[in-house]
Amino acid sequence: MKVFSIHDFLKSLQTIGATVYSFNQHYSKLQIKRKDVCGDIYGYQIDNGVVMAIHDLEISQPLCFPSLSQEEYFKISFFIEGDFRMTNSVSGKSQEIQGGTCRGFFFRSKGINRVYPKKKKIVSVDLGIRLGLLKEVLKNLPSSKINLKMIQLIDSFQNISILGRIPPNINKILTEILQNKESDFAQLLVIRAKVFELLAELMKLSDSFIWENNQSNFLSEKDLQKLFKAREYLEDNISNPPTLKELSKIVCLNEFKLKKGFKECFQSTVHNYLVDRRLCASCTLLKKSDCPISQIAYDIGYQCPSKFIHSFRKRFGVTPGQFRKQNGQLV
């Protein structure tokens, strides 16, 4: 399994200039001395699928930086100090961040983050977790509505962010982590233990923590299961999908709950979900077969190849033919 490496990421940031990268076998450190930003970023490889970063920075001007990697992951940031606005180029969302808050972000695709500071000082602790690992953990926990909600967010196709306050017991763990950031080997073991303690507390508090405002007020657990069934049925029938009315009857859920619930659970309308799945399926066919593009369009449910080409270019920024060339296949 490929390691989800924080060290490689910090090393790559040397390209922003006026930085010094160091690695001492226990953690990596990036020292930044620029006019717009200065301070330190510490990186810790907790596990193959879990990384942690500590930011201790002063930002005087709007700052742009890339997300961690191309790999899909969940990042939760605990802001000990800070007062700024943050945006992401993929989600297009803007959030106001202050000290004492935390922000969870489901990264589905790489994007550019922008920070607009109101106060210079920003201190944060970030945890990054591969979505595959997080989903596996959630599946092995006792079933609950919140676990279903988390899995729904993981299975969506968009970058999604959620925001809340840092509870006192979480803040205590974060303080202990910050006190040990300049780690020798013994302190690194303390850091690792504190990170796993932090993850355990997040699981315990999930019902009343940052996901509290994202739970549905009108969907029961049975409704959620029916929405999963609806999505599974769409996955199996993307080339010939049912109408909303037909799908409603198939899963025994009224059309209102199906439409509103589907968008809330999967961050997409039924129509947009189908379009996205069709286009993703077309990518696989373009890479693995030499079928004509018109045939691929018909195979995934498009009656008009030109409409498929338009949708593909709108979604991926290139035509199907260009995509196939870039991925080693002949047109």
Order of helices and strands: HEEEEEEEEEEEHHEHHHHHHHHH
How far apart lie the N and C ends?
Answer: 33 Å
Query: Rounded to an integer, what's the Rg over CA atoms?
Result: 22 Å
Average residue-wise pLDDT: 80
Helix amount, in percent?
A: 40-55%
Number of strands: 12
CATH first level of the largest domain: Mainly Beta
The portion of residues forming beta strands comes to: 25-35%
Largest sheet: 8 strands, antiparallel
Q: What is the 3D shape?
A: globular
Strand arrangement across the biggest beta sheet: 1-2-3-4-11-6-9-12
The tally of helices reads 12
CATH superfamily of the largest domain: Regulatory protein AraC
From the structure above, extract its key features.
single chain, 12 strands, four-stranded antiparallel sheet, Arc Repressor Mutant, subunit A, 12 helices, alpha+beta, 3 domains, 331 residues, Jelly Rolls, eight-stranded antiparallel sheet
Would you kindly provide a written description of the structure presented here, covering whatever features stand out?
Helices cover 42% and strands 26% of the residues. With 331 residues, the protein is α+β, with helices and mostly antiparallel strands. It folds into three domains: 6-214, Regulatory protein AraC (Jelly Rolls), CATH 2.60.120.280; 221-267; 272-326, Homeodomain-like (Arc Repressor Mutant, subunit A). The protein has an eight-stranded antiparallel β-sheet, sandwiched between helices. Strands 5-10-7-8 form a four-stranded antiparallel β-sheet, with no helix packed on it. A hairpin with a 4-residue loop joins strand 1 and strand 2 (28-33). Helix 2 (131-139) packs antiparallel against helix 3, helix 4 runs antiparallel to helix 5 (185-204) and helix 6 (221-236) crosses helix 7 (244-251). It is globular. The chain starts with 5 loop residues before the first helix and ends in a 5-residue tail after the last helix. Residues 208-216 have low confidence and may be disordered.
